[in-house]
Amino acid sequence: MPKLQGFEFWRTTLKGARYVVAPMVDQSELAWRLLSRRHGAELCYTPMLHAQVFVRDPNYRRENLYNEACPEDRPLIAQFCANDPEVFVKAALLAQDYCDAIDLNLGCPQMIAKRGHYGAFLQEEWNLLEKMLTLANEKISVPLTCKIRVFSEIEKTVEYAKMLEKAGCQLLTVHGRTKEQKGAMTGIASWEHIKAVRKAVNIPVFANGNIQHLSDVQRCMDETGVHGVMSAEGNLHNPALFEGSSPPVWEMAEEYLEVVQQYPCSLSYVRAHLFKLWHHTLQIYQELREELAKVKTLSGMAEVNRQLKQRCQEEMAKGGDGRKSVNGLPFPHWICQPYVRPVPKEPGSENGQPKPQTKVTCVKRALEDSDGTTEFLSKNKQKKKARNPHKNFNLEQKPKYIRCEQCGNPKGNKCVFSLCRGCCKKAAYKATADCPGHGLLFKTKQERALKLKSEEAQRAANGESAVQAGGEPVA
Known about the structure:
Largest sheet: 8 strands, parallel, barrel
Strand order of the largest sheet: 1-2-4-5-6-7-8-9
Number of helices: 18
Mean pLDDT: 88
Low-confidence stretches: 351-375, 469-475
Helix content: 40-55%
Distance between the termini: 50 Å
Number of strands: 13
């Protein structure tokens, strides 16, 4: 049976999904996807998976996709980052039986994507992307989709989208920000870019960016003509966004913790979700922030949630507004609502008036005193000192290490090549040598294999079986 394409794929397999939860690293795990689906989400993505690791590591495949497969979590799109056509195809083939489509991440703008050469940092390499999509489209049995960021120029963004469609992309998600728009410079997403792409291609288009409330979803669809809207930050602060409700933060936390009991995940994921849900309330109750940072069990997190609920209800009983405590909130701080980043100021202006140019000098933070006293330690080092009172931060008293001759990392004290473990492994493998200091026995293993092979050949020459050496001949 030929695989479905374009609008047929969107209508049939994805059931005409309009409300979409974005792929988020360490944040769109199964428990969160199921919670979001309960509250209106119609389509979810896996967190971004690294194609090369997915191919190489069976445990990675099990923990990030295989063990999470369940009927309630469909339709589901598995997203990969990759920069090699063959590796991308291998990863997609291993994943295709556990999802409804494979998405190529072309939108990640973070530094790790720049170092790994994937995500938005591939958007100038059109020949490579065309090859990746064309090859994958031929080999895999499920449709291919892409998530992209825009270029500054609308025309170039449109040509980029048309190239991806021609190469085999069956659904396109357009994040209306450039790869430079991140962190403090995030700013407003351009729906004009998204609208232009929607008009230019003949496949379904999802919009991503500026979605904080359900009203934003409909407005975005009306203004851009897209077929669905994807939310990331808005969903993290309010998983009930797509059903148009804004429940108390403790209710969402309670429900999420119940789902995690049934579908366990890393405690770091749970903690990160609670920090997002409680973002505004933790501005008021700072001590609960510290409690959440330290707690190490789900029951402990549930107890912090109980305390947060109790304090908010006490504040409500006293007639507190909950909005005066945190500036600029449309609802009381205990209601699920988005965190809106301040819009970056235009350089050279203040309140719309030209600002006199002044030379900005970069001043580095003063170094901590070399005696390592708590008074001069950073907060991070003070926490380490609290866990280990004997820890020494004095650089002058720390033992000096000898650097690896190839990469500069600390070398192994007993390494026969005077290298770190990584470089030693490469050198020992190339030379078929042993390094007892790093536990690498390439030469020994080869000698054992040759000896075993020689013994088997000798037994075969004597008419003996490898199992019955010295015994009865095998019939």
